[in-house]
């Protein structure tokens, strides 16, 4: 399937069929649909860039131990998680003439670009303690600026359409651009190496990718017109969060999502160590990710069709099961095969991994819409802040687990960012392989079992809507 064919199918899927519920829904224009979807290039670019290289940057470029690097990331993610409810509450209650969401996206994207360039332009410090403190602070500030963009951006989607299948189609288009963002993140380290092995290369990388984040976010700001929400007295922040956290539909989607994200974070961070130290072929990291992401991209239209046939929850379960099988194969076959076998297996695992892009982002708008039907209050920010809060705690835990595991198994980081590969012990190599197989697979299996309890289907969704209208 060619890229043009994929885009064509996604555009075709944008045709809207509204339920006859006595209300008239505004048909999404291509300008609105593409303008919104393009915004996720920047969001996923930042998210993936941090997952792919930041821990590696701290250990192999700056010389921090695995424990210190993991702790720095954990602190940054915990602070990021704390800021989510604050931003969501401010966004839900914003009364700007430009809308509730767009002012945050505009200024947050500008701040994110600025801080990204500063972070990757800092000089190397002789003291490891100073390095740890400075990069912990910068990572926390980076994540806060990302929250200013991501929470309001995510909250826009439920305001664009409330149609069950249309949500999946719009999410498919959004995830098409999200995967492009991930592909761009794969280029982060090669860009830095192209412009030089010193800090200058990382600065150029930050400027180039930061500008892409900024421009994609601003495209959303200037092309998407926010819906006018009927004024209704808001419940207290505490009560809104309490009601969201006792919403069983939300909980049975939230727990698997957090487990899946934690597993994926462990995988995407560990694979760079995997190819560098087990195979001594660092460049295959980008090749494997490229294969995974391209296959995921080409699989998006397939999963949109499958979700329409068997529904979103079962599709997500099927996809993550396929992905888990791929990881198991890599762990057991890699000691007896060439590194290119791992690249091929990782690539084809993208068929299942594709659901991790589309399904959760198609599921949560349904939950939010049903909450609105029942309560009469739009609380997108509340739901997305909890969603992202626990996502980031999962990422924080993943970073700490990786860092501590590397220290426990005796990982030796390069001295002063040396490019020479340090010879690691067999115990260390086994630990790195364990991070790429059994640990994430265990998390994926638990998530799949919980996701089986997720209750919303198209019939369930339409029944609630019909009862209301």
UniProtKB/TrEMBL annotation:
Transmembrane segments: 34-58, 104-123, 129-151, 172-192, 204-224, 250-275, 287-306, 313-334, 340-368, 389-412, 432-451
Protein name: MFS transporter
Organism annotation: Thiospirochaeta perfilievii
Keyword match S-adenosyl-L-methionine: no
Annotated GO MF terms: symporter activity
Gene Ontology biological-process annotations: carbohydrate transport; sodium ion transport
Keywords assigned by UniProt, alphabetized: Membrane, Transmembrane, Transmembrane helix
Origin superkingdom: Bacteria
PANTHER family: MAJOR FACILITATOR SUPERFAMILY (MFS) PROFILE DOMAIN-CONTAINING PROTEIN, MAJOR FACILITATOR SUPERFAMILY DOMAIN-CONTAINING PROTEIN
């Amino acid at each position: 399937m060619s890229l043009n064919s994929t885009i064509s199918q996604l555009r075709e899927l944008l045709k809207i069929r509204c339920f006859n519920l006595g209300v008239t829904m505004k048909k999404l224009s291509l300008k609105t649909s593409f303008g919104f979807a393009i915004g996720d290039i920047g969001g996923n670019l930042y998210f993936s860039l941090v997952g792919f290289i930041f821990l590696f940057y701290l250990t192999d470029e700056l010389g921090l131990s695995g424990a210190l690097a993991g702790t720095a990331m954990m602190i940054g993610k915990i602070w990021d998680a704390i800021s989510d409810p604050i931003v969501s509450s401010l966004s839900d209650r914003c009364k700007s003439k430009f809308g509730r969401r767009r002012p945050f996206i505009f200024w947050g994207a500008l701040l994110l670009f600025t801080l990204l360039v500063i972070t990757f332009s800092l000089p190397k410090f002789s003291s490891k303690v100073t390095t740890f403190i400075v990069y912990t602070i910068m990572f926390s500030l980076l994540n806060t600026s990302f929250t200013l963009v991501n929470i309001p951006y995510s909250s826009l989607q439920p305001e664009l359409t409330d149609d069950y299948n249309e949500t999946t189609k719009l999410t498919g288009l959004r995830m098409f651009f999200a995967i492009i963002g991930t592909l761009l993140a794969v280029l982060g380290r090669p860009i830095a190496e192209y412009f030089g092995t010193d800090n200058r290369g990382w600065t150029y990388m930050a400027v180039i990718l930061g500008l892409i984040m900024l421009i994609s976010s601003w495209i959303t700001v200037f092309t998407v017109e926010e819906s006018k929400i009927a004024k209704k007295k808001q419940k207290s922040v505490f009560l809104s969060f309490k009601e969201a956290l006792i919403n069983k539909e939300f909980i049975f989607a939230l727990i698997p999502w957090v487990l899946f994200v934690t597993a994926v974070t462990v995988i995407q961070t560990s694979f760079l160590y995997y190819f560098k130290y087990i195979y001594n072929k660092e460049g295959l990291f980008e090749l494997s990710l490229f294969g995974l992401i391209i296959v995921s991209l080409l699989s998006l239209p397939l999963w949109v069709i499958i979700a329409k046939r068997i529904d979103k929850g079962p599709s997500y379960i099927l996809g993550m099961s396929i992905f888990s099988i791929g990881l198991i194969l890599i762990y057991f076959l890699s000691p007896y095969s060439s590194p290119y076998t791992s690249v091929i297996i990782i690539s084809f695992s993208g068929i299942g991994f594709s659901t991790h892009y589309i399904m959760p982002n198609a599921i949560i708008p349904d939950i939010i819409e049903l909450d609105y039907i029942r309560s009469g209050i739009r609380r997108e920010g509340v739901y997305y802040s909890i969603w992202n809060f626990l996502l980031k705690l999962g990422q924080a835990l993943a970073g700490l687990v990786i860092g501590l595991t590397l220290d426990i198994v005796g990982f030796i980081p390069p001295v002063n960012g040396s490019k020479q590969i340090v010879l690691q012990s067999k115990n260390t190599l086994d630990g790195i392989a364990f991070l790429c197989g059994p640990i994430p697979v265990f998390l994926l299996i638990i998530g799949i079992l919980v996701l089986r309890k997720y209750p919303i289907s198209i019939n369930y969704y339409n029944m609630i809507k019909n009862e209301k209208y």
